[in-house]
Design a protein that fits this description.
By secondary structure, the protein is an alpha/beta fold. Helix content is 29%, strand content 20%. The strands form 2 sheets. Strands 1, 2, 3, 4, 5, 6, 7, 8, 9 and 10 form a 10-stranded mixed beta sheet that branches. The chain has a 4-stranded antiparallel beta sheet with strand order 11-12-13-14.
């Protein structure tokens, strides 16, 4: 077990000039902060750890290294969270001599946190940090899935060193990786190579353009519920709401929408890692982007505090928490089994792999209605293809 203090620079923030909320009403009431005078020795009992990574190498977004403290300063001005969830702010990861050193250090810290059942909230920095997450989870020899919220698909057809615009190449094709599924939310067609979209479709990844999300934002919730890790690139937000990034777009998510997606991530049973990247205070307007990024983290944590762990109990057919619905589809042999939680009203589909073992795919009420119209939900079809059916 490593000594995390050797990897971290403690939190060091100036006292705000204006404090709208103070004392027990403010966000710091929820957080135990790693300071130079009070280093953290024991993470037992903590649910979430904030971790800044001030490194913008392997990226054209120079200035993103200043984002962690800018976001943290805004976050600490918000109100306290409900409940008694224990949060720690670990401070910032020490920058390595090389970018690979930073990735190695981030990997070590994430492994330590996951081993103690602590969910890291990584405040970047840039998306070039994402390979550290892959190397961490893959080293545990566990299949995992990722949700990426971005206006672009960070994948390139040509071979080149890994950077913030092609990190998906390394994650998908690196030897030894355990990435089993990818969901891309919010990409914009005019910013996306159609050949990359076709390639992702052939791999049966989930793809939701921003227009599809806006028409049915609730359809993204099952994607977060099945994900191991989630990445939020601030470039997915429209420039009017988040100007502080190197590649802004006139269109994108509204601030309220991106905060809702962050809350979905917090509610997820399965999510173990959250990363927020590409915020650049040097391009910001009166800290507008840093403030929105802090709101996203707050809504993630608020959702986390309301989390209901249901997946461990879903296979128990005698559990009165769930209702099972059997639907006959003409295009399928046998029945489709939908499962609804009585408490949260969330839905799942039961899928069996080639060995007959059941798996539970998060879905929506709309998927159930589609099956009742004798239509096979696309979410189900793609999952069956991934399972080799």
């Amino acid at each position: 077990m490593i000594d995390l203090n050797q990897y971290l620079d403690p939190v060091c923030l100036d006292k705000p000039e204006v404090e709208h909320l103070a004392g027990s009403a403010a966000f710091p009431h929820n957080v135990v902060v790693n300071t130079g005078n009070m280093p953290l020795d024991d993470l037992s009992g903590y649910s979430v750890a904030l971790l800044g990574v001030p490194d913008d190498r392997c990226s054209s977004n120079k200035g993103a290294m200043y984002a962690p403290d800018a976001i943290r300063k805004n976050l600490y001005s918000f109100s306290r969270l409900p409940g008694k969830m224990k949060i720690t702010d670990l401070g910032n990861l020490k920058t390595g001599t090389s970018f690979e050193d930073t990735l190695a250090g981030l990997r070590d810290v994430i492994i330590q946190l996951l081993a103690q059942d602590v969910v890291p909230v990584i405040i970047g920095g840039t998306s070039a940090l994402m390979p550290a997450i892959d190397r961490c989870i893959s080293s545990l020899r566990q299949p995992w899935s990722l949700v990426s919220v971005d206006s672009r698909l960070d994948f390139t057809a040509e071979k080149r060193p890994v950077d913030s615009l092609n990190w998906m190449n390394d994650m998908i094709y690196r030897s030894g990786n355990r990435l089993s599924h990818l969901s891309a939310i919010g990409h914009q067609t005019y910013l996306t190579d159609q050949q990359v979209v076709n390639r992702f479709n052939r791999r049966h990844y989930e793809m939701m353009r921003i227009g599809e999300v806006r028409a049915a934002v609730h359809e993204t919730e099952p994607l977060f519920r099945d994900a191991t890790a989630a990445l939020f690139d601030i470039g997915s937000v429209r420039q009017a709401d988040a100007p502080g990034t190197i590649l802004p777009s006139a269109n994108g998510f509204y601030g309220e929408e991106i905060c809702l997606l962050a809350r979905y991530a917090g509610l997820s049973d399965n999510l173990k890692i959250l990363a927020l990247t590409e915020v650049n205070p040097m391009y910001d307007n009166r800290f507008q982007t840093s403030h929105l990024a802090a709101q996203m983290i707050w809504f993630f944590l608020e959702g986390f505090s309301q989390k209901q762990y249901e997946l461990p109990y879903i296979s128990d057919q005698m559990n009165n928490r769930f209702t099972r619905y059997h639907v006959t589809l003409s295009d399928l042999e046998g029945e489709a089994i939908f499962i609804k939680s009585i408490i949260t009203e969330r839905w799942w589909i039961e899928i069996r792999d080639a060995d007959g073992e059941p798996h539970y795919l998060a879905c929506s009420y709309d998927d159930y209605l589609m099956a009742n119209r004798d239509q096979v939900p696309g979410r189900w079809t793609r999952a069956m293809l991934r399972f080799g059916h």
